Amino acid sequence: AVFDSTAVYTASKQEISQKMSDFDGKWLREASKVEKIFEECHKRGILLIAYHVSLSTRVPLQEDQVRLALKHLYRKVPCLRVCFGEREGTLWFREATNNNVDFKVLPETEVNEVMACLKSYQYNSDTGPLWCTRLVADTSSGQCEQTTSMVDNISSGHSGQASPHIPDDNLVSFPHSYHLFLGFHHSIVDGFSAMKICGFTVTLLNDVITGKPINDDQLGEFVSREETMELVLAKKALIEADPLLMKKLTDEANLRKDKELFFSRIYQIPEGIEVKSLILERQLDTTTTRKFLNKCRAEKVTIHSAFTALADAALVELLAEKGVVQDTYNIYNYHSINMRRYWKGDVSKSLGCHVSVIFMNTHTPRNINEIFWDFARSVHQELQSKLKSGSALEEEAFDLLKSDSMDTFEAIADSPSGLVLPDYNTTNMGDVTALVTEGTDHIRVTRVIRSISNTVLACTHVFHTFRGRFLYLLDYSTRHLSTEIAESFCNKIFDNLLNVIQDCI
């Protein structure tokens, strides 16, 4: 069957509603431990995902066009049609029978608050949907003007301000600008899935605008963690058969457990302050991004490894300024990775939450800036070694063996002091341009950023490249960092970045 979006919008909505009525709310599968943890987080308003997609269009968008595109999105993306239910005392996913799309058009005056709202949004877990969309028209002038700054300080504070679109010489024919926000429950998506869904949304909106028929083909599959768990259980068997490996993992876990958060040595949360998840944004221009990439290639490291080294250098500098002076700083960090990397076959259509982390302790010398690229290469070697060996799988396997392993996030979510906190963590998606810009003759995506609500962890470095620019966001918690410290941390990272690439053409 084909839905012709040239028909009257109300008729198209009726067709889609009829199609959705086929869903009987059947049980799908038991939620994995990770998915259950994220549901516990959702109940507390933490670790929720928000995406901000800046758009320019040839003609003004109509609310009904966007709503219709979202109806098609709901129908075509399986992970957007699920909710939770209790089955024999266990949390399961089931198909949602509620086919309403959570969409609102907001006045421009509210754009500064949208990301903050979505990062603490309460979805109806029992009925769905577990995602939402907001649209804000951008009537500001001069937003696409070129800038002379190599590093743009885009926004700061509670939720970030309406960010400028990335300059594009081809936008003359796209004079109408909008901010499209998508919020997600983390149990149904990871970064890969969410970014693809942003791309699906833009493509479907373009098809609605042009009157292109939209078919029933599903845009991906809502895949369980079964393949990951098979690999985890294989690692578990290896650990059980190797006492030396078990001791090594136990010793490493104990070191992390005893590690004091460095930020706690330079900041104590003022009594009575409301704990918030705040963000800071930075972006590099295309020339500086190219220099950074070329320098990383020349030094035989990834951008991720180089940025990790930059974060370590900035933290060491910040600590020294605050009187925490050591010869070596043992910085504990972890890095989110896409676990599909360990699966067999084509994973491009595998949607859902398939994220895990790599733990690292970097022994960072006080003189790191004097030996920066040597240090970056050591970080690179360790990261690559952990990726190739399946360290994330090993950590999950070890977690299954620990006698004190918690089944849910509930206890530690209610008592953050019980968490083993990293000094920082990272999430890097590489170049996301192709994921969100295909098939859009009438729409140009000019910028996309992402954020995750964070009041428990100290801070998260969120970065990717888009249209030749390095885009960065620091998610930080006022439980562990003041805005002044967060600003200083960011500034030192990017000051050092410019310094280490200054000899690059």
Task: List the main descriptive attributes of the protein structure presented here.
Chloramphenicol Acetyltransferase; CAT-like_dom_sf; 505 residues; alpha+beta; 19 strands; Alcohol_O-acetyltransferase; 5-stranded mixed sheet; Condensation domain-containing protein; 7-stranded mixed sheet
* DSSP E strands, number: 19
Q: How far is it from the N-terminal to the C-terminal residue, by CA? A: 54 Å
CATH topology of the domain at 2-222: Chloramphenicol Acetyltransferase
CATH class of the domain at 2-222: Alpha Beta
Helix content: 25-40%
The major sheet is characterized as:
7 strands, mixed
Query: Strand content of the residues, in percent?
Result: 15-25%
Output the number of helix runs. 14
Provide the low-confidence segments as ranges. Answer: 1-13, 15-23, 142-148, 154-163
Shape: globular
What's the name of the CATH homologous superfamily of the domain at 2-222? Chloramphenicol acetyltransferase-like domain
